[in-house]
Amino acid sequence: MGEYPAYDDAVYDSFDVRDERFAAYQQAIAGSVAGKVVVDIGTGRDALWAVAAARAGARHVYAVERQPDAADQARRAVAGLGDRVTIIEGSSTAIGLPSPAQVCISEIVGNIASAEGAVAVLNDARRRLCTTDCVWIPFRIQTWAAAVQLPDSARVLDPASLPYVERVFAAAGAPFDLRLCLGGPGASLRVSSAAVVESLVFDHRRSLPDENAVATTRLTVDVASARLTGLLLWSRIAVTPAAGRPEIDTLAGGTRGWAPVYVPLSTDGLPVRHGDHLALTFSRTTSDDRVHPDYHVAVRTGDADESLTWSSPHHGSGFRESELHRHLFPGGDAGPDSLAI
Ligand SMILES: C[S@@+](CC[C@H](N)C(=O)[O-])C[C@H]1O[C@@H](n2cnc3c(N)ncnc32)[C@H](O)[C@@H]1O
Questions:
Q1: Labelling 125: which of 168, 200, 211, 270 has CA 20 to 30 A away?
Q2: What is the reported pLDDT for 187?
Q3: Which of 3, 26, 66, 128 is the pocket-test mutation for ligand 1 (most atoms within 8 Å of CB)?
Q4: Residue nearest atom 4 of ligand 1, based on CA coordinates
Q5: Residue at 46 is within a domain
Q6: Residue 186's pLDDT band (boundaries 50, 70, 90)?
Q7: CA–CA distance, 291 with 89 (Å, rounded to integer)
Q8: If you average pLDDT over residues 216-223, what whole number do you get?
Q9: In which domain, by residue range, is 50 found?
Q10: Phi/psi at 146 (5° precision)
Q11: 144 alpha carbon, distance to own chain's centre
Q12: Residue 25 sits in a domain of what CATH number?
């Protein structure tokens, strides 16, 4: 949902909890902002990081929020901090700052790390909004992949997700085969080793991360036998580069801020055995909105002629084209009004 303007109070409530994500950001902010000009990209309803930065002694905080209702509420959230925080309504890619930021804070990390547009948005911030030696919070975001066997009993849509599905379809202009996450951590479904498929470092001493990229890697089946139905993709976040600071592994369940994306590859499941190798190709291509990526995944077992594939455009694909989407969204006419199940 983070890829679309679909946040509501329930979602913002889930960010404002004292979990692993909150603690890591608070610690990183407290250690970096004293006396500095700070930009907080995507400050959200509660301006959590902007408030933390002001309290930690930032000289000035520019807090940017693209959702107008959230920007309005963020203004109220910072009212007690005098004039040290300015809320700017709009997308960070469309605004300018009176003075460049020395610290850039953001939490636009997707369930697939780059899915909320972090590469395009933070590259743009680096070019236009920040000093050349800016400190980046977070420092590195990654996407990891592993093969899974999803039981049939897990192929159920949580009814609580339907209002968000409607909003995503409205934002995209039409229903489409949107990405699906597993409710709760999915680590117990793994049947293979895990591998990194994207690793994005935000650091002024390094070149900008590429908006379009292809990664190839290998997964090894590490259970006696299984039926491979798909992959899980999940994020890991290193909020600062400081040694000894734990990374947030979103599959581990220490925060409700993310959920693993399920990549359906085979409805019946491909039989695999311990030691089998799976060649995995993961591609990221910026969509025509120039911010949010489209993804393509291909998986091939050692002896197979053809790959199992998954294409997931940010918007604009057909609706009920995949077997999983037909199963989860039964109904006749495609259209948001026919979604009630
Ligand atoms: C995951 S929420 C994070 C909110 C808050 N910073 C936190 O970490 O709890 C992401 C927020 O960023 C906003 N957002 C995403 N991309 C943005 C952009 N390029 N410019 C401004 N706001 C953006 C969204 O509307 C949403 O409120």
A1: 168
A2: 86
A3: 66
A4: 44
A5: yes
A6: confident
A7: 18
A8: 98
A9: 9-139
A10: -150, 150
A11: 12
A12: 3.40.50.150
